[in-house]
Structures are given as structure tokens and as C-alpha cells.
């Protein structure tokens, strides 16, 4: 009876609201699928052969970066197909492809197979960008900030909670079972998308489809769109610059302990909780006062949070500051996506959001490289200071690229 009532309430909602509910879960699971392997990547690879310390680091890096590199390269192609064939079809392709590839990772017998499947996962990706494009084109524009803020919590929270979920499942059931569980959940996403997501789509014929160069020439606010692409890259690079050293920093704060892995997972996941709470409110506020203002506030707040992370004396202080990072994240990506939505033609939304995903994927590759390089030359604490500097550069770029919005007001 309760299920029937909930189902009735679901169908009473407007079409865009029903899409939002299903796609939130889908983007959450896509975020989990990309990040759950992080806590035990090296440990899983170590079970696939006999490797030296240097070889283990090399293959772990390959397995991590191959997904995002391939995603960055292929995203524009999927975006073009989305504008031509529809975003729902791309959502089905991505969710089914991830269900298969992630499940197969639990069956690999050597590291080459794992890296290949991680690369294929990047090739079939695109669920998040197409979910964003679909929601952006079917939601009333006056609600776009709030709605995209809610949708973003799915991706961000899934990405941040993924390591914790993966660590818990792996420690309880084993590494391989983790992939089977996640693959099954992605197949559930495929089914939910197939039966419950509705799209009113007018296909653009291939002969009528403008080249990307022409689209960007005709954009009324081209500077804003390109600026948001760069902003997305730096946001992701900033968030991921501390990924390679976070568990090592935690170990430095608490000493050698059997609980380092668990505590590191909790600390890594704390921002996801804050983002989940704050993003809808920040999106709603952005609709009232301007998304560009929310974006700038979030960047200033991030600078003020990253700097003291370099000087914490215990893991609890680090955890509190990581919570504040989640609040700043709630201002950033929703703000970027809202500005892209409001300054993009709807018939090219798929391609424009796919380009944004390419920059996001590049940030996921560049960030850990910056963090590990800085840590190698200085120490763990230097990574937080360099990240604060990176966010400062991002603030100046946002201020420059959104100047036209200030003059309009």
C-alpha cells in the first residue's frame, strides 16, 4: 500500500520533476562507479600479479587516469550524437555500458584487462553530462539554478561517497564483489532511465547540424561559456589535487593505526554530505541573486578553507574543514552549470555540456598530478596551499569572464 501511494505521488509530479528524481539517482551511481575503486585500486592490482613498488604505482596511475583521459576525448562525439538522436538514448547507452564494464572488472585475471576496461568505461561514459543537458532543456529557466543544484548533488555526492562505499563493500565482501554490486546498480539505473525518464526531443538532422566552431561563433556570451569550461577544469583539479596524499596526510596526523583506511574514507567522504545538504539552497539563492555571485562566493570560501588545512593539528580539525569544502562545492559546479544553461542554445545543449564534461575529466587527471608533484617537492601541507592558490586563479578568471553580467545589472 505504501509503495502504491508513493508511486501515485511520483506520477502526480510534473514531467521534469520525475526526470529529476530518476536522474539524481543515476548521476549518484555514475559518480560512485567512477570513484569506488579508489580506496583499493593498488591493493586490487597487487592481487593480479607480482609487482615492484614502482610498477604498482605506475599501473595504479594508468588504471585511474585512463578512464578520465578517454572520457575527455570521446565526450564531444557523444554530445553531437545527443543533439542528433536525443539525450535519453545517450543515457541508456552510458548506463548499460557502465553496468557491463564495471561488472567485468570483477572478472579480470591481469592488470592489462583492468586498464583496458577502465579505458572502455571512459569511452562509454556520458551519463552525467547528458542528464544535465536533459534536465537543463526540460526545466523552467527560472528554476534552473535550484534544479541543477539538486542534480549536481547526485554526481558530487556519488563521487565523494564512492570511496567510502567501495571501501566498506571491499572490506566486507572482497574486491571483486564490489564491482558486481556496482554493475548491478548501474543496470538498475538503465532500467529506471528506460521506463521513467521522458524526453520531448526534436532531433537535429545531421545535414542541419552546425559544426562546433559555428555554434561557438554564434553564442551571444561566448566568453562566459569558455570561461565556465576553464572554471570546471580548475574546480575538478582543485578538488582532486589532494586525492593522492589525503590518506597519507591522515596517517601523519593520527600515526600508524589499523583504522587509517577507514578514517581516510570518512574524511574523503565528508564533503559529499555537506554538498548534499547545501547545493539545493545555494542553487535557489543563485536564482535570486545571480549564479555568478554564488560562484564567486564559493571560490572565496574555498580559499579560506584550503589554507588552514595546511596547519591542522588533528584529524578532527581536518574533517571539519573538509565539511566546509563540501559547502563551497555546493556553490561551484551548480553555479557553473546554471551559467552554461542560461547562455546556451537548447538545440546544442548536448554538445556544450559534453565539452564541459571533457574539461571536467581533464581536471580529474591534472589535479592528482599537481598534488603528487607538489607533495614530492615540498610536503603534504604544501599541497593545500598550492590548491588555495589554484582556486585564487580560478576566482580571477571567473571575475574576468562574468564581467559582462555585472555590467548588464
Automatic annotation (TrEMBL):
Protein origin, superkingdom: Bacteria
Chief place of localization: membrane
TM region(s), chain numbering: 21-45, 57-78, 90-109, 115-136, 148-171, 177-197, 224-249, 261-282, 294-316, 380-398
Upper taxonomic lineage: Bacteria, Bacillati, Bacillota, Bacilli, Lactobacillales
Membrane topology recorded in Swiss-Prot or TrEMBL: Multi-pass membrane protein
GO cellular component: plasma membrane
One MF annotation (Gene Ontology) recorded for this entry: transmembrane transporter activity
Keywords: Cell membrane, Membrane, Transmembrane, Transmembrane helix, Transport
Signal peptide: none
Limits of the Major facilitator superfamily (MFS) profile domain: 19-406
CDD domains (alphabetical): MFS_MdtG_MDR_like
Cell compartment(s), UniProt: Cell membrane
Pfam families: MFS_1
Coiled coil residues, start to end: none
UniProt-recorded name of the protein: Multidrug transporter subunit MdtG
